[in-house]
Amino acid sequence: MVPSLLALSDVMGTGWFAADAANVKPGKTVAVVGDGAVGLLGVLSAKQMGAERIIVMSRHESRQKLAREFGATDIVTERGDEGVERIKELTNGIGADSVLECVGTQESMVQAIQCARRGGHVGYVGVPHGVDFDGEKLFYAHVHLHGGPAPVRRYLPDLIKLVWNKKIIPGKVFDLTLPLDQVAEGYRAMDERRAIKTLLRPTR
Q1: What value does the mean pLDDT take over residues 26-47?
Q2: Cβ-contact 13, 159 below 8 angstroms
Q3: Residue 67 CA to chain centroid, in angstroms?
Q4: What letters, b where the CB count within 10 A reaches 16 and e where it falls short, cover 159-185?
């Protein structure tokens, strides 16, 4: 259980906040922008919250497989306008009820907002870098935006119970294990998309 408990302090707590901020409810449709550890655990969170349909935007086969395991029902490989159009096609032209933005780029944020239905919610947890909002477009998009640093401590009691009772196994995002003295390689592997998340083990 150690990998899963470690995940709760960071990526699982953040993915849960993304789903919470996006107002995920039972029976609703969710879109997830980003297939890193946070995005994948956002899928797991949305599934736990009762989402009926979970659409993940991903181009990586190994991540798509884990997304399916966590509860994703659809995979979209397109990006930008094509990605938005595909989400609209899958939702009969309406858009997703909730969108989890787990990247933090201009493109991902615009895509998340455009994928949401009118009156929908976007939960953004990707740290924004180079993101600018067009006030007029945002005004007419008619979506709710909520995000920021995840209040992980608020969720920990419930998340620990879910792990302890084996309801969720968020530790599956750790697909590379290295000794502590190879921390630089761990970051390099994640940066180059060779690993979703690196688990470092202290050596004796």
Answers
A1: 98
A2: yes
A3: 10
A4: beebbeeeebbbbbbbbbebeeebeee
pTM of this prediction? 0.95
DSSP 182: G
Over range 22-42, report the average pLDDT.
Answer: 98
Dist. CA 78–CA 95, nearest whole Å: 15
From residue 48, how far is each of 26, 110, 145, 183 by CA, in Å? Answer: 9, 26, 22, 32
Helix 11-21 to helix 37-48 angle, to the nearest 10 degrees? 60
How confident is the model at residue 133, as a pLDDT? 86
- What is the rounded CA–CA span in Å between residue 169 and residue 203? 25
- Count CB neighbours of 157 within 10 A: 8
CA atoms within 13 A on the CB side of 199: 16
